[in-house]
Write a structure and sequence with these properties.
heterodimer; A: about 100 residues; mainly alpha; rod-shaped; B: mainly alpha; about 65% helix
């Protein structure tokens, strides 16, 4: 297995694992946040504007960690610097031969 | 399919590149400035007013109410900055209904610039409200040991603001691009609608978080006069 193959395999596998783990944690956390917010809404319906606004802000903060994992996966698949370097090296070697 | 509108280059002269991000940002700025100038040319205070003036009044009073609810005591002072943040990000996301347009907030440069604006504005508002000594002393709250953690949190929440907005916008565009090659008929339209919704939510989140950071920096720690009651920021 030459280095280009190793780079490709590692990038693909890690991109998949990153997205997999990165969506599990925030999903659990957001589920708990929404359920607590629903309990609070049921107990105090006239505070619903404040509760809803705080819920959305909290969900956006939790969501950001999922977004970080997504961004890393996208970089690994579409803008991978190691892959680009490997391709440039291989092209230079092929042209030099 | 590209990662961000930075890679679509319209024109290039040596080092300077006119890419899609810059072009669409300037188009948005033109749209917002010219549109609001046209609407506010003939403002009227009686019952007969144009529907565009009504629209702008709804938007402005809505933003003012939200800023006041976060806990900032004179919303008009901060409404220029926070309102512009919200309107820019919201309009950038709304214009995706125009074919051929890509939101400039889908590029990390734009979102990093907006987050840096917030990072500069928070100390400015804090110093304007509490004086330089008072603002710097707030970094030592609650104890002096927290100084490095407060500094790190400044940087990390700026980074989080930038990456959150960039990630949400980029993921919307990427999902639509991928779906267009798999199921080209109805499903990309559904995902575009979802992208509109997340765009508006992220615009709201960005400006509300900026308001919360400014409120934390301008919060009155102890009442200065005996007659002024201490106001706690309501979230």
């Amino acid at each position: 297995m030459d280095s280009l193959t190793i780079i490709a395999v590692a990038s693909i596998v890690i991109a998949g694992i990153t997205t997999g783990f990165g969506t599990m944690g925030p999903a659990f956390a957001e589920g708990r946040a929404v359920s607590t917010a629903l309990t609070a809404l049921a107990q105090q319906p006239d505070a619903s504007a404040t509760i809803t606004r705080t819920l959305f802000v909290g969900l956006a903060m939790i969501e950001s960690t999922a977004i970080y994992c997504f961004v890393v996966s996208m970089i690994l698949i579409f803008a991978n610097p190691f892959w680009n370097y490997g391709i440039a090296l291989a092209a230079a070697l092929a042209a030099g031969k | 399919m590209h990662l961000s509108p930075d890679e679509v280059i319209f024109w290039q002269l040596g080092f300077f590149k006119l890419n899609a991000t810059i072009a669409y940002t300037w188009a948005l700025m033109l749209l917002l400035v010219v549109g609001s100038r046209l609407i506010t040319r003939h403002l009227s205070t009686d019952h007969k007013r144009s529907r565009w003036q009504n629209l702008l009044e709804i938007v402005v009073t809505g933003i003012e109410t939200q800023i006041a609810e976060v806990g900032l005591r004179h919303p008009r002072k901060y409404m220029g900055f926070l309102g512009t943040l919200f309107l820019f990000v919201a309009m950038a996301s709304l214009c995706t209904v125009i074919p051929g347009y890509e939101p400039p907030t889908g590029s990390l440069s734009t979102t990093a610039a907006l987050a840096l604006c917030v990072m500069v504005a928070v100390p400015l508002f804090g110093i304007e409200d509490q004086g330089l000594g008072g603002y710097l002393k707030s970094y030592l709250e609650p104890t002096a040991i927290m100084l490095p953690f407060n500094l790190i949190s400044e940087i990390s929440r700026t980074l989080a603001l930038a990456v959150r907005l960039f990630g949400n916008m980029m993921s919307g565009a990427m999902i639509i691009g991928i779906l267009l090659s798999i199921t080209p008929f109805i499903f990309p339209i559904v995902m575009t609608v979802l992208g509109l919704l997340t765009g508006m939510v992220q615009a709201y989140i960005f400006s509300i978080l900026a308001a919360v950071y400014i409120a934390a920096a301008t919060q009155v720690r102890k009442p200065k006069l005996k007659t002024e009651p201490e106001l706690a920021p309501k979230i």
